[in-house]
Each structure stands twice: as C-alpha cells, then as structure tokens.
Design goal:
The chain is about 50% helix and about 10% strand. The protein is an alpha+beta fold. The strands form 5 sheets. It has a 4-stranded mixed β-sheet with strand order 10-6-5-12. Strand 1 and strand 2 form a beta hairpin.
C-alpha cells in the first residue's frame, strides 16, 4: 500500500509499505530487517495505545505515539536477547534526546501538548516532540516510580478506560492512585505544557557544595523567561555513589556532598529532557578521569555528556579546548554510537582549522584516536553490521583507513572493487557475501550471475 509513512495502524488491521512487510531476512539485509521490525512492533502497540484506549482529542497525540515509541523499545529489548548494540533501548533514547533537543531548543518552539480547536492542525503534531520528547517523559515516569508501580498503573489505566477515550489527566490519575511519592499529574503537566526545555547550570558553591540554577535554554542564551520545570535530579561523584532522585521545582537550589569531590555528574539516569552546563574545573576533571578509565560513566552518561559538550562548544559557551581535552579517551571508547558522535564533532572542529597552520597536527591527533578502531575493520563483525550507528561508524573508519592508506583497509577496498567490477568469476558466493556490505549482498543475491 502506498502510504506517507512506513506503517499505519487501524482497528483489526495494520497497513504496511511493501518494502517494510518484505524486508528480507536478518542475515541478508540486517539494517532493513531491524528497522522494519521496529515499525511492526510500533504499529502493533497502537492496538493498546490508540485503539483499546483512544484519545479524547488530538492535543494528546503524544500519549499514543510517545507510548508506542517507548513500548516498542522496551518490548524489543525483552523479546530478542541478541539485539545489536545500536538497537538497545538506551541507544534509541540517546538518538531521541538529540533529535528532540535539536527541535525543542529554539525560541518559538511549541509545547508537546497543544490546544487544537479543530482537526486541521493534527498533522503537525506528528513530530519529534510527540515521539522523542513524549517517550522521554514516559521514561522519566517509569524510572521515578519503579517498574512495578509503573506496570500497576498501566494495568489500572487499561482496565478503567478499556474501549473508551482518555486524556493525559486520566492517564496520570491511574498512577497517582497507586503511588503517593510522586505526583505524576503535576510532573507530566509541567513537561507537556511548557514550551522549550531547561538548562541546568551548575557552579561550585564551596568545597563540598554545588549551586544550581535552571533557565529556558536557547542556543543564544539570551531568552529569559520565568518558566520553571520539575527536573528530576540526583548526583554522583568520584567519592560517592548516586544519590536518590528528587524533583527540583525552584529557580535555584543547592546540593552538598558528604566528601569533597574531584568530579561529579548530575541526573545519572538522564531522566531530565534538559541540557547541562558544568563549571570548567569539573569538565577538566571529568576529561582526566575518562582518559584514565572511561567506564566510570555508563554509555548513556557518556553519550549525554558528549552531546552537551558539543552543544555548548558550538554555541560558544565553552572553549573548544575542553572538547579536545575530553576527546583524548576516544581511542578506548567501546560503543560505536559514541565514537560516531565524536568523529562528527571533531570533523566540524577541523573545518574551522582550514585556514590555520596546525591542520596537519590535528590530522595526526585524529589518527591517533581512530587507529585502534580502524584496525578492527577486517574483523568478521564488520561483515555483519546492523543498524544506523554501526553503518556510520564503519563508513567513517573505512574512509579514514583509506585516506591514511592503512594497509589492511586498502586491501579490503581493493577486494570489494574487484567484486563490483566482476573480476571474481568462479568464486563461491558465500565467500563473496562475507566480503560485501549488506546492500551489496542484496544485489548479489538478486543477480547471482553477475558474480
């Protein structure tokens, strides 16, 4: 069926685009298979979020789309134990964090939940705020309540509103009846109805204490409003484990560690859809600590930290020297999505050096960071790439490997050129398949006589 999107759910029938319904096997075309698997689970989840319980009106579109996004990631993490790295739940939320903030940081952005007088504006509600920010808000509720209370609230919601319509207040009330520690209604109302997102600015108050201030974030940092968000916060340092989460609702607040920290981070589970700006001394200490052992932060913490560094450097709030100092640990980074984040940032930095004399030195530095990753290009795992992050990671490394004339990479390039130019007559297809990119494997299977 020809649709504007990959899939569309209807009561008792789901419509899918042909290329999504017949994406091929995971072995032959892994990227297409994994993406289409997500689309199918997303549309199936609408049987509950959208059909079993429908919306009272379009202003709560996020409730079905954000929930479908969230449940899709949660379900796939539990359904398939061999998820490739780029398809784990946290990886999707990392991408959602970046895309949502990129759309939400401007002065004239709109809230997730908008008042619509008629249905003509409904199409505009299908945006990254409804999907990415909406699912992030639900993730915050899940983490704040705990999985058991969250599931009980969902069960109550479906029992109460089965084959009826509901809005976000009805949804929140089901959780508030079960849990008395956190007002889900107030939390959701705040994040859904406030346009934009907050910036949390952290400075040292004394040897053990921090001073925090929240304000509306825009790239220019010159848009001052009286908006306040309920920001879930906790703290972790090199001396202390993560503290318990609390909701911060004031313009300013303080936090005191038991022992004076060398470095610290806030919001260890990344529940707040916000940017963070630490003082320079803490960023320098974190750079040293990551260079010594990057696993002091989880992959989610590292990804959010790197995104915030890049964002503030690009907007001129931080010096690029902080970015370069932190990037020293990149050679030991184990997650492809974070390596890709870094490579994009460093290439942007290099573009600003074209008129400077130290471009050659920067190339040497980049080679030192990426060479450990490039040496993995020949390993079998690169023949089984699955997902957007792995593809981008591979493409960057292959590009630099060829550029720097890394011997094994040049050999792989020569072999693939030979395959594409038809110089491998008589060779076994299974051998060829092991040497090709996933997209080339599909072409080979469709036209085996070309081999």
């Amino acid at each position: 069926i020809r649709l504007q999107c990959r899939g569309m759910e209807n009561i008792a029938m789901i419509h899918l685009m042909y290329d999504c319904a017949y994406s091929g096997s995971r072995t032959v075309n892994p990227s297409s298979y994994l993406y289409c698997r997500e689309v199918i689970v997303h549309e199936v989840s609408h049987m509950w979020f959208g059909n079993m319980v429908s919306l009272k009106w379009w202003d709560d579109l996020w409730l079905k789309e954000g929930f479908a996004r969230y449940i899709t990631m949660y379900a796939l993490d539990h359904m398939e134990t061999d998820q490739p790295p780029g398809y784990h739940m946290d990886e999707h939320f990392k991408r959602g964090y970046k895309s949502g903030i990129d759309d939400d940081k401007f002065r004239f952005t709109k809230p997730v939940r908008q008042v619509l007088k008629d249905s003509f504006g409904a199409a505009a509600m299908f945006n990254s705020l409804s999907y990415a920010k909406g699912s992030w808000i639900l993730r915050g509720v899940w983490k704040l309540l705990g999985e058991t209370s969250f599931q009980k609230g969902l069960q109550k919601y479906f029992k109460t509103y089965r084959m009826k319509s509901a809005d976000f207040r009805d949804f929140a009330a089901c959780f508030d009846d079960i849990n008395k520690d956190v007002s889900v209604k107030n939390f959701m109302e705040n994040w859904l109805n406030e346009p934009g997102l907050p910036a949390v600015i952290v400075t040292k108050d004394n040897e053990k204490g921090l001073a925090l201030k929240q304000s509306r974030y825009t790239p220019s940092w010159d848009y001052h409003t009286q908006q306040l968000w309920q920001i879930p916060l906790n703290f972790k340092s090199d001396k202390e484990e993560a503290s318990k989460y609390k909701l911060w609702e004031e313009k300013k607040t303080t936090f005191t560690f038991t022992t004076a920290p060398t470095w610290y981070i806030l919001d260890t589970e990344s529940l707040a859809f916000a940017v963070r700006l630490y003082e320079k001394e803490n960023l320098a200490a974190l750079a040293v600590a990551l260079h010594t052992n990057h696993t002091i932060l989880t992959s989610m913490q590292r990804s959010v930290h790197v995104f915030n560094l890049i964002e503030h450097v690009e907007q001129g709030k931080l010096s690029s020297s902080i970015l370069l100092e932190t990037s020293r640990y990149l050679a030991s980074e184990s997650l492809s999505s974070i390596v890709t984040q870094w490579v994009r940032a460093l290439l942007n930095f290099k573009r600003g050096l074209y008129l400077a004399e130290n471009t050659y030195l920067f190339d040497k530095y980049l080679k030192q960071l990426l060479l450990p990753h490039i040496k993995r290009v020949q390993s079998h795992e690169f023949d089984k790439l699955e997902g957007w992050n792995e593809k981008a990671y591979y493409q960057y490394l292959f590009y630099f490997g060829v550029k720097w004339r890394h011997g094994p990479t040049m050999h792989v390039q020569a072999r693939r050129k030979a395959v594409l130019q038809g110089r491998t007559c008589g060779r076994d297809l299974s051998i060829l398949r092991a040497e090709l990119l996933p997209s080339q494997v599909v072409a080979l299977d469709e036209n085996p006589e070309d081999a």
